[in-house]
Every structure is written in structure tokens, then in C-alpha cells.
């Protein structure tokens, strides 16, 4: 008889909240790589705060903030190569940035620009997926294709704890495990599926243990510890490339802000809880303390990075906002490579609507 009490997962953690190494872990990242990962995290935080302010000013559509989850995204995406694939959700622009998605695309998409979802040629990343857990199926399909073609690429897909309650998630894990596909299921457990806390979503003690039912490796990691996230992702990638199949990674983290800008988190989260995570467990502060302790970072470098990146963002936003807003009829040019007759008819109808005074 299966004893659920014996099913335990020890959370992987290498860096404590004060930036000190825990125990004697194997750290394969160089000092330069750690500085670069911190810079990515800092840029992601600055971008997130900038886009949130733009939304409040009416210059951006509904937006899903990521602050608090930078270590989970940057640490994992940094372990990939350019031959690997990323299947993101709507909150994963830090991972997308690291993998090579231009800032212009991220900002344009957030502003609802027609061309914001266009992926540059040669970049192995899928457009943002807003259907919860659907990207897990897409990543599984990509991994199946890679294995079928004899390629050495790995697919990683990002999703939240709420996605694990969706059927697509379970179908993806089942298919990937049966065929031992090179795919990593990276769950950012930020404690809430919009307003629904984790304990109302599942009775299992961890999300990582769900891997057991599908015969794959499951790992729970401190999602605010970028060293640990990077190492467990590297190990999962190595297993995938060696033909050992998929891995489910549960990165335990927290979103500091709302689910989206249409959400009011004060209705379901206490101020004390938010302060505990944002003040004591901030992933940026943790890595910065570690770098400062090693003499690799200081206040001057931090201020310089913030100033230069803010300047870059401001210039880019000015360029994007100066562009002419695409009209509805232009969207029909990007449905299929070759438009069929019905699509042409619909596009012409849209043009007539605009010509007769319809909105953009």
C-alpha cells in the first residue's frame, strides 16, 4: 500500500536570505555569470515597475507584474542555450529577455501593438500564451519534434501554480513522460492562482510530488534563490539531453504585486504576508548581498545600471509611442502565410468598416 507520508521533497536551497551560502553546495557559475544574472534580474525589476506605471497612466493595457519572481525566471532561462525553446506565459518576460526577446517586442506587446507578438527570425521562443497551461502542451509538442528529428534541443515551459489544476498540464506531463521527451516543466509557485491560495487548489504537500505519478523527476527549489534555481535547471537540462526524459521543477516564490492590474490583492492577502516576502525574501536583495560580500557589486554599480537602463527604456518607449497604431484590418495579414478567400473577404469588410468611420 502506498504511504503518502513517505513522499517528501527536500527543497533545494543554496543561498539564505542574507546572501550567505548554506552548507557546502556545488556552484558551477562563475563570478561573471553571477553578475550578469543579477543585472538581468535588476533590469527585469526596473522594466516591471516601468510598465506598471505606464498602465496606471493609461499608456498600457492590462499588465501582469512579475516582481518577486525574477530569480526563478532568470536563473532557469540563463541555463538554456540558444538552440533550446521557451514556451512562456503572460508573466514571463524576464525569462524571455534572457533568451533573447527584444525589449521592443515585450513593451509593444504590453501596449497591445499588433506587431508586439511577432517573434524575430531564428529566436526559439513562442508567442505569449494567455490560456492557462496551454503552453505546457506546446512545449511537449516541440520536445517531441526535437526528439523525432534527432536534435539536441530542450524545451522549457513556464506556468504558475494555478496551471497545475488544469487538464492540459496533466496531459502534457503524461505524454512527455511516456515518450521521455526533452522538456522541462517549470512551475513558479507564487502561492496564488489569482485570488485562490495554494491550499484551496490542492491537497498535495508539494507541486513537485505530482511528478511521481507520471514517472518523471520532480524537484522543489527555493524560487528566490537564483543559485539553486540555476543549478537544478542545469541538471534537468542535462538529463533531458541525455535522453532521461522530462523534469517537473517547482520554484517556490511569490508575486509582490497583483495578479494583473485589474486585480486587487489586498482583498485576499494580508499586508504582513506581503511584507514578509518582499522585505525578507526579495531575490534581488539576496543575490546582491552575496555579490557585495564577495566584492563583486556595490551601490555605485547598482545606480549606474539603473540609470542607464532607465534611459534605454525611456528612449525605446518614446519610439514605440511615436509609431502609428496599426488598424484592425492589418491583423488579417498575420493569420496565415497565404490568405484564403474567406480571410480576404473578412479583411475587406474590416477595411470598409474603418472607411465608414469605424474605430481602430
Automatic annotation (TrEMBL):
Among CDD domains, the record links this protein to: TPP_E1_PDC_ADC_BCADC (cd02000)
Can the keyword Oxidoreductase be found in this entry's annotation? yes
As its record notes, the protein acts as a catalyst of: N(6)-[(R)-lipoyl]-L-lysyl-[protein] + pyruvate + H(+) = N(6)-[(R)-S(8)-acetyldihydrolipoyl]-L-lysyl-[protein] + CO2
Dehydrogenase E1 component domain residues: 40-328
UniProt lineage: Bacteria, Bacillati, Bacillota, Bacilli, Bacillales
Q: Which residues cross the membrane?
A: none
State its Enzyme Commission number(s).
1.2.4.1
Does the entry feature the keyword Oxidoreductase, yes or no?
yes
**Record's protein name:** Pyruvate dehydrogenase E1 component subunit alpha
The scientific name of the source species is Pallidibacillus pasinlerensis
Tell me the InterPro entries matching this sequence. Alpha-ketoacid_DH_E1_comp, DH_E1, PdhA/BkdA, THDP-binding
